Amino acid sequence: MATSKSPTGDTARNGTAADNARTAPTRFRLSPMRPRDPNEPGRAASTLELFFDLVFVIAVSIAASHLHDTVTAGRLGEGVISYLLVFFAIWWAWMNFTWFATSFDTDDWLYRLLTIVQMGGVLVLAAGIGPVFESEDFRLLIAGYVLMRIIMISQWLRAARGAGTARWTTIVYAAGIGIAQILWVAWLAIDDPTMRAVGLGLLILAEISIPVIAETRGTTPWHPDHITERYGCFTIIVLGESLLASANAVFDALGEVADIVPLISLGLLCLIVTAAMWWIYFWPPHHRAIGSLGGSLKYGYGHYFIFAAAGAFSAGVGVEADSQLGNSALDPVLATFTVSVPIVVFVLGVWVLAIRANANAVVNTVVPVCALLILADPIIPIPTFLTTFFMIIIVITLVVFPPTTEDS
């Protein structure tokens, strides 16, 4: 996590990112890892960052698939808890790299190599998702997670050499991450279920506390437009994965049922709702939400729920399709909720983090009220009708009332 500030002190002396790129490389052809200018014009997501996101979406897809299978088998609570825990590891590793990159990306060969190794850790983590759902075996998942975090330690230590006034911040990040990884490995040795649950909660709390503690030592610079573009890119990729998985679930079910009207309705929901989720997410100017450390933490941490909901949406569509085919052990009403609840969480999450501060009273009434009314979908006999209807109402409202200006 990083917090925005004007390029003062060492940051100003180090110059802009363009100046850093022109700095003569060392004998190992490495560029000095210096803080990037938070006011750098035209800062956009790099191709390496987009490539990095694709590997994480593999993990999201696998987690959603196992959520679908577990919930369809009738183990709703178990599936949701496992999904939320697995998704924390995915999201937290992605977010830490993203905020680091906005501050210290050099794009030299060592930075690229370490990032690719970190991507390998994502694949190991993805391979460990199945054992977590099937037998609560976290060993492989934690192995992949620890590998990713060790790479981040090396990146933070490298950044410490040229971080200037943020040097202690980078060291605190590296030390905090290192201690947390030792504790994760030690946690695997705990056998008592209660102690494992308590230890898991404490470790998650420790992980999310590291940026809060580190940034009090001296802030690292971030680029508001770049960081919000990174979040936007990941949102698009996760929504695309959800649309693909949802469409496949509906297509596979079409050949197994005589009455295809409910499935066609579900298919239309996939398209309309996914498009509406995209529309809703990109309506507000997100860069306004991260103008302070508190705003940055709220925005960054709050996206856990947005990303997790987007990933779970596809699992919910699969569960609903199985329920209509009679292939689900889950109650039909609960099956419908597996579709509507992720949508509600997504919409309310975006509203709280980005829409509310940039909208008038009409938008700030319609969006949360319509989102909550989506929860009434299971009570009517027409599947997904209310969900689709209220999502369309939200989009129409956003079209009629554009975001307020900063001076409004």
UniProtKB/TrEMBL annotation:
InterPro entries (alphabetical): Low_temperature_requirement_A
Lineage: superkingdom: Bacteria
Bias kind Polar residues: ranges: 1-14
Lineage: Bacteria, Bacillati, Actinomycetota, Actinomycetes, Micrococcales
Protein name stated in the entry: Low temperature requirement protein A
PANTHER family in UniProt: BLL5714 PROTEIN (PTHR36840)
Location of region: Disordered: 1-22
UniProt KW keywords: Membrane, Transmembrane, Transmembrane helix
